[in-house]
Design goal:
Layout: H1 3-8, H2 11-22, H3 24-43, H4 46-49, H5 56-71, H6 77-91, H7 97-115, H8 120-183, H9 193-205, E1 212-220, H10 223-230, H11 232-249, E2 255-259, E3 263-270, H12 272-292, E4 298-305, H13 312-375, H14 377-404, E5 412-415, H15 416-434, E6 437-441, E7 448-451, H16 453-468, E8 476-484, E9 487-494, H17 522-532, E10 536-542, E11 546-554, H18 559-593
Helix pairs in contact: 2-3, 3-5, 5-6, 5-7, 6-7, 6-8, 7-8, 10-11, 11-12, 13-14, 13-18, 15-16, 16-17, 17-18
């Protein structure tokens, strides 16, 4: 019996055959829609399948296959069912494999029974087909398990590869951190000496023909004093502060290093202008640090490639050698200073005692001269000459004793403008009497400073008085003052006769005077007061055009400056002055004997 006879013997088969003959278009439309739906379901992506309810996808496939199996025999239904069964087993996620197998087997058998007449042989064939469904289902499950096992292994391998790469990256980062830590200073995080050498050598390889590579070495000469007097913790804070301020002040391309305790090094590519700017920036940073830590001093040594060195190692070595020369010079100055203080101490004690011994006989001489003048006319005519000279000697001894004694200044805040106007008011009558003008050149803002106001007045009076006495005809004395950063600048200007070049180096020496009746003590006193205030005084003059005295004083006096530095400086200045006065007395005495 052939297939057509078998279909015609089945009620369902007869109905399908009748439908296909009566409505061929409709029949073709149903078959086409079913095939299209089946293909769509087969090609549906896994992410969309996972969104469907359980078994909805399986049932959709089964319905399409059952319709095609019942309506057409152009394709072997068993092959289609087995292929789709394996496909469903492979793509199923939540569905039970046994239920899928049962659904496919039952659907196949049901469609076959409804569309074909059955006998004993056909039943045995269906049983064998059912066994084939079970075998295909088992085989699909094995393939699925193998596939997913392979996928899991690939994912595991991928995961392990990622973890291994991450571990390698962490190891590399850790090694870089260790290497960077080895190349960095533990306290300031700047480069150490070895890393600085590497950076300098690398910088030389990038150097163009038009540029140079500069290395600047800096040493903190008195840094041990900070550790001793303020503690190691404070010293470490100072080093960190210097490092941070150098990083802020210098360009980002500058290589900054710290090595050998309190020594820093800076390297940078550039021309000579860049080198000057680097030095200026370093000096500005250290000047700012010194306002907070007055004991801190420093020295610099620099070298340039290729002008002065042929390689990186030689460049660094040359800069260090120049730094060593500066260090040796400072140490020699300190040793000479110490020896000088020891000598001046002994001379000062002797000279101070000598001054007291001279004043006592002068008092007696003055009394005898006055008594003798009252009794004798021959003595009386000399009284007007002897007594002023005795008073002059007493005044000199008084100033000498005042300078030989170390007296602390009384620092307090005051308005500098008010002090200057007080001095000008005091000196105005004398200026008017002499026919000269006093002109203040005030700054625009109020200027308050910390100093000994009386001593500042004494300086101004001496300088203005010298200026008034320098005129041979009508002249003008100008007083200028202003604030620059943390300093006060005062200038006393006159258009008088000026100072001869050979006298400029002597004017601050005791007893040096170009005036016949001058004591030569005024400028010495001014120099000492300015030095006690940790300031500077210098003079610029052109004969016939006038003189300018420049005073630079700190805006604020620090406690460290007052307690630790002033006493030593005062003693040195006092003893130097005593030595100079003693030498002068000795020279004068030798001259009198001769």
């Amino acid at each position: 019996m052939d297939d057509v006879d078998m279909i015609s013997n089945s009620l369902v088969g007869e109905w399908i055959e009748h439908f296909s003959e009566q409505s061929e278009i409709m029949y073709g439309f149903v078959v086409g829609i079913t095939i299209l739906l089946l293909v769509t379901l087969v090609l549906l992506k896994q992410k969309h399948i996972e969104k469907l309810p359980p078994y909805a996808y399986v049932l959709g496939i089964l319905i399409c296959v059952a319709i095609l199996d019942a309506m057409t025999k152009s394709v072997s239904p068993l092959s289609v069912f087995l292929i789709l069964l394996g496909y469903m087993q492979f793509r199923s996620v939540e569905e039970n494999s046994a239920i899928i197998t049962i659904l496919f087997t039952a659907t196949y058998l049901l469609v076959d029974i409804l569309t074909f007449p059955y006998d004993t042989m056909h039943i045995l064939e269906l049983v064998s087909h059912a066994a084939l469904f079970l075998w295909i289902s088992w085989l699909a499950l094995q393939v699925k398990q193998a596939f997913f096992e392979k996928s899991r292994l690939k994912e595991r391998q991928k995961y392990m590869t990622i973890r291994m790469n991450e571990a390698q990256n962490r190891i590399l980062e850790y090694n870089e951190e260790i290497e960077e830590t080895y190349r960095r200073d533990y306290l300031t995080a700047l480069y150490n000496f070895g890393a600085f050498q590497e950076q300098v050598i690398y910088g030389l390889t990038r150097l163009s023909k038009d540029h140079s590579f500069h290395v600047i070495c800096m040493d903190l000469t008195d840094f041990q004093q900070i550790n001793i007097k303020e503690g190691i913790d404070v010293g470490d804070q100072v080093l960190v502060e210097i490092a941070n301020r150098l990083k802020e002040a210098l360009p980002s391309s500058a290589i900054i290093a710290r090595y050998d305790g309190d020594q820093f090094a800076i390297g940078m590519i550039g021309n000579q202008l860049i080198l000057r700017r680097l030095l200026e920036s370093i000096e500005a940073v250290m000047k700012e640090i010194q306002t907070e830590h007055f004991l801190l001093n420093y020295c610099l040594g620099s070298a340039s490639y290729p002008e002065e060195a042929s390689c990186g190692a030689e460049l660094i070595r040359l800069a260090e050698q120049r730094l060593t020369i500066q260090q040796r010079r400072i140490r020699n100055q300190e040793e000479e200073h110490k020896k000088h203080l020891e000598k001046l101490s002994a001379v000062g004690q002797l000279a101070a005692g000598l001054a007291h011994e001279i004043r006592n006989p002068l008092t007696s001489i003055r009394g005898f001269v006055q008594i003798s003048a009252a009794e004798s006319e021959s003595v009386k005519k000399w009284e007007s000459i002897i007594l002023p000279e005795i008073d002059r000697i007493n005044q000199l001894l008084k100033q000498f004793l005042n300078l030989s004694e170390s007296r602390p200044a009384h620092y307090a805040y005051f308005n500098l403008e008010q002090v200057i106007y007080d001095v000008l008011s005091l000196m105005q009558p004398k200026a008017t009497l002499m026919g000269h003008d006093l002109v203040p050149r005030s700054c625009a803002e109020q200027l308050d400073m910390e100093a000994d106001a009386e001593q500042i007045k004494q300086i101004l009076i001496n300088l203005i008085q010298n200026a008034l006495e320098s005129f041979q005809e009508k002249g003008v004395v100008e007083v200028h003052w202003r604030q620059i950063d943390q300093e006060v600048r005062i200038e006393i200007r006159d258009n008088g006769t000026g100072i001869k070049p050979e006298n400029l180096t002597k004017i601050f020496e005791p007893f040096f005077s170009t005036k016949g009746d001058g004591t030569g003590m005024g400028l010495s006193v001014c120099h000492r007061i300015v030095t006690e205030h940790k300031g500077q005084i210098h003079v610029s003059s052109q004969p016939g055009r006038g003189t300018i005295f420049h005073l630079t004083l700190p805006l604020n006096q620090r406690d460290v400056q007052r307690e630790d530095s002033d006493s030593e400086q005062k003693m040195m200045d006092s003893l130097e002055f005593v030595q100079e006065v003693s030498s002068t007395f000795a020279r004068n005495r030798r001259g009198e004997v001769i």
